[in-house]
Amino acid sequence: MAEVGANLSAVRERVSRAAERSGRDAGAVELLVVTKTWPPAVIREVLEAGQTLLGENKLQEAERKMADLPSGLRWHFIGRLQRNKARKALELFESIHSVDSLRLARHLDRIAGEIGRKPSIYIQVNTAGEESKSGFEEGELRETLPELTGLKNLQVVGLMSIPPAVSHPEAARTSFQALRVFRDELEQGSGMRLPGLSMGMSHDFEIAIEEGSTIVRVGSSIFGPRTGAVAQG
């Protein structure tokens, strides 16, 4: 898959140009390469191109890959996290993008304290109020933010959202705008800093960056269409 390196380079350039359009330096936006379903042999191609920030959404799959890949990589968890898998997630990942309830946050905080970790977290917000998606409603988060940011073993760095399915990337803009505006309101109302916005995937990451994203989650634009089961090697 020699094209993987070229695709990564092209995505990096698109990230840089989108950041410039938003009035920011390219370094203000992190590229999280989503490696789910791809085997270590393919992932090594992005490592050879200097990529060290990787995202996975399934714990068992991630653990298998981590055993076959170099240490020192930065792994972020981007999938829905069940409470009974919180300990393993904290052992494997430096950041969790999908903290979708106060109950989960409290559970993560307790376990992080037990194992001596202090991960960064993004609070998932259901900006569109979709029943099919998890995440805090805006009013709920306004009420619980002081407790969330006060958890001693978690670093709340910002918000995350997944926009409704749309037929064209431009149609996701209003969802990204909504998260940024809500983040700004939270900061102004509470005096707390929430600098991170985890939003944007392969089909819409440039729009997300234009609307303030600080980290985009990109997989298929780099690796191509996903193949399903994870191959070995």
What does this structure look like?
- The chain is α/β, with parallel strands linked by helices.
- The chain contains nine helices and eight strands.
- The protein has one domain (3-223): Alanine racemase (TIM Barrel), CATH 3.20.20.
- It has an eight-stranded parallel β-sheet with strand order 7-6-5-4-3-2-1-8.
- β1 (30-34), α2 and β2 (53-56) form a beta-alpha-beta unit.
- α4 (86-92) packs across α5 (102-115).
- The chain starts with a helix and ends in a 10-residue tail after the last helix.
CATH class: Alpha Beta
The CATH topology label is: TIM Barrel
User: Can you count the beta strands?
Assistant: 8
The major β-sheet equals: 8 strands, parallel
Averaged pLDDT, please? 94
Name the CATH architecture: Alpha-Beta Barrel
Short note summarizing the structure:
The protein has 233 residues and is of the alpha/beta class.
SSE layout and pairings?
Blueprint: H1 3-21, E1 30-34, H2 40-48, E2 53-56, H3 59-68, E3 74-77, H4 86-92, E4 95-99, H5 102-115, E5 120-124, H6 138-150, E6 155-160, H7 173-190, E7 196-198, H8 205-210, E8 215-218, H9 220-223
Parallel strand pairs: 1-2, 1-8, 2-3, 3-4, 4-5, 5-6, 6-7
Protein traits:
233 residues; alpha/beta; TIM Barrel
